[in-house]
Amino acid sequence: MTEPVAAPDRPTVILGVGGGIAAYKACEVLRRLTESGHAVRVVPTDGALKFVGAATFEALSGQPVQTGVFEDVPSVPHVKLGQNADLVVVAPATANLIAKAAHGLADDLLTNTLLTARCPVLLVPAMHTEMWEHPATRANVALLRSRGVVVAEPASGRLTGKDTGKGRLPEPAEIVDLARLLLARPDALPRDLEGVHVAVSAGGTREPLDPVRYLGNRSSGRQGWALARVAAQRGARVTLVAAHTADLVTPAGVDVRRVGSALELRDAMHAVAATADVVVMAAAVADFRPVDLVEHKIKKTDRDPDPVALTRNPDILAELVAARRPGQVVVGFAAETGDASTSVLEYGRAKLKRKGCDWLVVNAVGDGRAFEVEDNAGWLLSADGAETPIPHGSKARLASAVWDAVAPSVER
């Protein structure tokens, strides 16, 4: 039996691997998918097996590996694999594979699988910059996207040899994040933000007290990262202003600008917002900062140290709303905890009215929710009074719900 066998609640993923140097990263994509509960069948090209052996893919997937259509003929794998898949991911997708997929060529098991698949298909390109930018490749990518195939934006960075530029395969964690999103929502990555400049803030600010200590919060930056990643894959030009975050890899196709304190984030967001069509304030900005920065480390042995005097940080979201240009869309985030008299949602409604932004995403925090976790949930509130609950799921899924609402309101 050549097709992968999965339990009813275990999604079946075909992982195609093209013949590029980045094929080694497919091993990590495979490991992450299998460890998160997916049944994965690897379908490499002959070229891919020159970089990574079949035994590696078989050991990690627990499934046989073959490249041709004349192996195990009675089970017709060239048809069954595509028919039975919940998702097909090709990583790396070389220029040659993209050209074959665009023009319906089917000369091996992987290209036959692409023709028979009726599930979402995610192609993750990896090639030199000149190849990615060549008119033939750009035309092939546009053709595939017009048919509903998700062709991811490649990352920028080190390529083979001494070359650097756009065309690097995104990191495995990002590929798996996109795969999970498409399994949950096959329509989550339309190209509806092309021509739109998006500015996103992410992470938690750190307000220095002395050379060692700071006031901060528990934000990991993952939600802002997801918003930036999904926007870029939906075609936007994205600038991500990042305060302190967890050890997160720069999303493919995103320009990242690093900041530390609330005041630094304020300056950076005002600068980026001056040309942005959409501004998203997802960063967790400290409400207060120390009045004075102590130049030396405050010692335990110091007698009766002076109390730390605090001053209020500027309300960056309110400033961005006040400064917005006609047609610019501003989205805020509210991390809230309810109390005996007021619910999280009621606090969110009050904040939306107070801030005056177009949209507000309200998250309940605490008890392992929102901060420092992979998943999220909440409500999307609109200035016109609409309220949309966002069910618990990955942060990329929440990001896609936000962009679903925002994209139609952006002036082109």
UniProtKB/TrEMBL annotation:
Pathway linked to the protein: Cofactor biosynthesis; coenzyme A biosynthesis; CoA from (R)-pantothenate: step 2/5; Cofactor biosynthesis; coenzyme A biosynthesis; CoA from (R)-pantothenate: step 3/5
Reaction(s) catalysed (UniProt annotation): (R)-4'-phosphopantothenate + L-cysteine + CTP = N-[(R)-4-phosphopantothenoyl]-L-cysteine + CMP + diphosphate + H(+); N-[(R)-4-phosphopantothenoyl]-L-cysteine + H(+) = (R)-4'-phosphopantetheine + CO2
Gene Ontology terms for molecular function: FMN binding; metal ion binding; phosphopantothenate--cysteine ligase activity; phosphopantothenoylcysteine decarboxylase activity
The keyword Phosphoprotein is annotated on this UniProt entry: no
Biological-process GO terms, alphabetical: coenzyme A biosynthetic process; pantothenate catabolic process
InterPro entries listed in its UniProt record: CoaB-like_sf, CoaBC, DNA/pantothenate-metab_flavo_C, Flavin_trans-like, Flavoprotein
Cofactor binding note: Binds 1 FMN per subunit.
Region (Phosphopantothenoylcysteine decarboxylase): 1-197
GO terms under cellular component: phosphopantothenoylcysteine decarboxylase complex
Ranges for region Phosphopantothenate--cysteine ligase: 198-412
Claim: Ligase is one of the keywords in the record: yes
Cofactor: Mg(2+); FMN
Domain Flavoprotein: 12-178
Residue span(s) of domain DNA/pantothenate metabolism flavoprotein C-terminal: 193-407
Binding site for CTP: D287, K297, P314, D315, I316, L317, F333, K351, K355
Keywords assigned by UniProt, alphabetized: Decarboxylase, Flavoprotein, FMN, Ligase, Lyase, Magnesium, Metal-binding, Multifunctional enzyme
Enzyme Commission code(s) on record: 4.1.1.36, 6.3.2.5
HAMAP family for the chain: CoaBC
Similarity field: In the C-terminal section; belongs to the PPC synthetase family. In the N-terminal section; belongs to the HFCD (homo-oligomeric flavin containing Cys decarboxylase) superfamily.
Role: Catalyzes two steps in the biosynthesis of coenzyme A. In the first step cysteine is conjugated to 4'-phosphopantothenate to form 4-phosphopantothenoylcysteine, in the latter compound is decarboxylated to form 4'-phosphopantotheine. Catalyzes two sequential steps in the biosynthesis of coenzyme A. In the first step cysteine is conjugated to 4'-phosphopantothenate to form 4-phosphopantothenoylcysteine. In the second step the latter compound is decarboxylated to form 4'-phosphopantotheine.
Stated name of the protein: Coenzyme A biosynthesis bifunctional protein CoaBC
